[in-house]
Amino acid sequence: MGAHLYSDHRTIDAEERVRLESYGKIVDDNLSHQLRSTSNVLKSIRSELPYLAAQKEGVAFVNRRLKSMSDVMPGVRTLLVLDATGTVSASNREELIGQNFREREYFRIAHEGGNAATLYVSPPFKTALGVFAVTLAMVITDERGAFSGIVTATLDPEYFSTLLDSILYAPDARASIIHSDGTVFVSSPHLPGVDGMTLAKPGTFFIRHQESGQRSSLFTGTVYATGDERMMHQRTGEKNGLALDRPFVFAVSRDLTMIFADWHRDTYAQAGGFGLLVLIASSGLYLYQKRQRAYDRLLAIQEAERKQADEALRKSEARFRQTFERNDSVMLLIDPRSGEISDANAAAAQFYGYSIELLKTMRIQQVNMLSPDEVADSYAQMARRERNFFIFPHRLADGSVRTVEVRSSPIEVGNSCLLFSIIHDITERKQMEERIRDLAFFDPLTQLPNRRLLNDRLNQTMAANKRSGSYGALMFLDLDNFKPLNDAHGHEIGDLLLMEVSNRLKGCVRDMDTVARFGGDEFVVMISELVADKSESASQGGVIAEKIRASLAKPYVLEVRQEETAKTTVEHHCTASIGISLFSKNDSCQEDVLKRADAAMYQAKEAGRNLIRFYDVADA
Fold first, then answer.
1. Are residues 495 and 597 in the same domain?
2. Are residues 410 and 540 in the same domain?
3. What ranges make up the beta strands (E) of 397-471?
4. Which structural domain, as residue segments, surrounds residue 506?
5. How far apart are CA 46 and CA 54, in angstroms?
């Protein structure tokens, strides 16, 4: 029993370590993507500044440019351009223009560093607008290469707090993003006093991680920030080609008591059962010794006691049988050599949907959906005590498939060695893990990819275009008559329209293409792998756009049930304005492609709605 509990403890510990590490990597991947996007935006602003400043009303033009960029950049609060003295010369926030921030840490480290290729990361600080944030800065140089100012992007802590919320897979889970100097940038769930706390103290998990020299570490013990006992995974952010002067550190942790709560309950229960077994065995031994001492004196009494012992054994077996049959957990006795089910309890019959008699005529291969060779190998490992824990897909009598957790140990029954298997249904837990992933990358209403997944697929498609030399097309769609429907009939009818629009859009493109919901009544369609000829690609994109426009212009018949029997039917006509931008192997910034398609869509809408408009370089 001790070995079984020890093995369970190690299994729970190993699984939790893997889970914490996987969620730490999710935060790393998302933040790396955000830093890369922000770096590209800062480079774009820096390269465009001389041209924009030379235009008529150049300062106002630069401010509008910064405002449009910040509006489409999730996670960025403020964009600034500071001159060599630290004075704000341009910003997406008018109230900051003219202020001097030469004393700010982000200006000082960029000015002292002076490397135009480096992305400087400031420690977390309270901004002039009263927000606790981190600023990314790039150096601007003049034509002689001398320092002439910086361009900065201030990261929005609320955006990263939402990211951390999405990976909290348990009520006691916590996550945080930490600057490399040990200052906590943002944490979730928010605890008073944690954001802004310095963890660079001797003996803290943060210092132990830094001293290890590893990108990834896992520690258990008392957490400095909160004083509770936790298991914590820490991960130093991947630079992925970015010239960061300081990386971020990500921490994901769980309460040790909650991790092993079920194991502790099992331990107490089994220890109590073992104590009861010792008590019964000791009593039996005492009676046996007493009978031995009386053997020479009273042979007849000894025979009577022997019969009494046999009766006690029969009752003990009956009690064991009763415990097995009435246990709420699904239990099976299986022959590891043939896979035959020797016995099953009532909980197993209820779970699988077969009678106990029928289960005892079946083989486990008729339930387990793995191949016969895989099932045989798994049960051979159980019999050899190499493993006692597996996760299998089991098919029930009604044809449904459930994911189960199987713990098995070999036991002797008569002259045979059988596997005593305890089976738990973990289907809902696995579905919840998948649900967490879907919430991060898919729109919950239409089940279409959201903006984050669209950006990832656009990056992949642009990389593929560079290899193949072919064009792709990105379409922005805005529904022309959506708000009146919502105002007249409510959001439930509006949601039905959005779902029908998503279905029509998916029916107009190939499986390899992407349809995404960009927000509200805006959708994006990405057509990949067109031809290498620009004119022919534009023609193909126009055909697809016309097909989409015609499909969306057809009447919508929307039904919503107001009560148990009453239904409301609404017929609605809704068109769409479509903007199209081609992208090729020469395009390297996905934000530019998105902005071109967005601009073409607004031109189509302003020209009269229900139109298709290609992006033209002259319109820029």
1. yes
2. no
3. 401-413, 416-425
4. 442-619
5. 14
